[in-house]
Specification:
The protein has 255 residues and is of the alpha+beta class. It has five helices and eleven strands, in the order ααββαβββαβαβββββ. It binds 2-acetamido-2-deoxy-beta-D-glucopyranose (2 copies). Keywords: Cell membrane, Disulfide bond, Glycoprotein, Ion transport, Membrane, Potassium, Potassium transport, Signal, Signal-anchor, Sodium, Sodium transport, Sodium/potassium transport, Transmembrane, Transmembrane helix, Transport.
């Protein structure tokens, strides 16, 4: 009895000592927390606004958005520590002492040298899932059992790829109404259409980088406010458009 008690005390003691493990992890209820989706750039001057409005022909104008993205990518950068950065893949996930790299070269046109494509009126928006300690996604990885409201194109994509690649938190961006869908036009996702499963669970390892998805709007119609919703897809991400759960909303206006 006494030995067991001592063991438990020691365990609790060491748990609280490890600075990387948040104390509230012991509160099971929080493990079920919904990870929020975020986007950049965000409108800066007005907290309430979700309008991304720029002139691709006016460098002074679009540079504000470009700088905002750069700031975000910078602040998100690796605090290089003892963790080993590794180029991960579904077949080569990180080991206990490794973290996966996030490579800006995987983002196509969505890079600094190309002004994140704002000058081409085909802007890139970055999506990120909030970090929740210990959270592990439950994937939509069974092509025969996908949610009814999942966009057809994503379903097709999931059917097209190998089962190991299906271990992904999927991302879709769409116009909110039929007119928005038409105005928004085609979309490309870099490096792929979601957050690969090998980044999870998040365990606050030294040097951990959040995976990002760069969403490139190839040719949105200019001069019109387009309502866009981007959504993250996993069984344990709750979704509600009205409460902005598991999704983000913004408007795009290109002058
Ligand atoms: C370019 O953008 C800046 C900043 O938004 C603005 O002050 C300026 O008037 C714009 N120039 C033109 C030619 O529209
Ligand atoms: C799925 O694969 C087919 C055949 O290779 C291809 O034509 C189609 O574009 C692919 N669809 C998606 C969404 O990747």
């Amino acid at each position: 009895m006494l030995a067991a008690l001592v063991a438990i005390c020691m365990w609790v003691f060491f748990q609280t000592l490890d600075p990387r493990i948040p104390k509230w992890q012991l509160d099971r209820s929080l493990i079920g927390t919904n990870p929020g989706l975020g986007f950049r750039p965000m409108p800066m001057n007005n907290e309430e606004s979700t309008l991304i409005w720029f002139q691709g022909s006016n460098k002074t104008n679009y540079q504000i958005w470009v700088d905002h993205i750069l700031q975000f990518l910078d602040s998100d950068k690796i605090a290089k520590g003892n963790g080993q950065i590794k180029t991960c893949s579904h077949s080569d996930p990180p080991k206990a002492d490794e973290v996966c790299e996030v490579d800006v070269r995987d983002w196509g046109d969505c890079n600094k040298d190309r002004h994140f494509n704002y000058h081409m009126n085909a802007p890139c928006i970055f999506l990120k899932l909030n970090k929740i300690y210990g959270w592990t996604p439950e994937y939509y990885d069974d092509p025969n059992n996908l949610p009814k409201d999942m966009p057809k194109k994503l379903k097709e994509h999931i059917r097209n790829i190998t089962s190991i690649e299906r271990r992904t938190v999927w991302i879709t961006c769409e116009g909110e109404n039929p007119a928005d869908i038409e105005y928004l036009g085609p979309i490309t996702y870099y490096p792929s259409q979601g957050f690969p499963g090998y980044y999870y669970p998040y365990l606050n390892r030294e040097g951990y980088l959040s995976p990002l998805v760069a969403v490139k709007f190839e040719r949105p119609v200019p001069g019109i406010v387009i309502n866009v919703e981007c959504r993250a897809w996993a069984r344990n991400i709750r979704y509600s458009r009205s409460e902005r759960m598991g999704s983000v909303h913004f408007e795009l206006l290109i002058d």
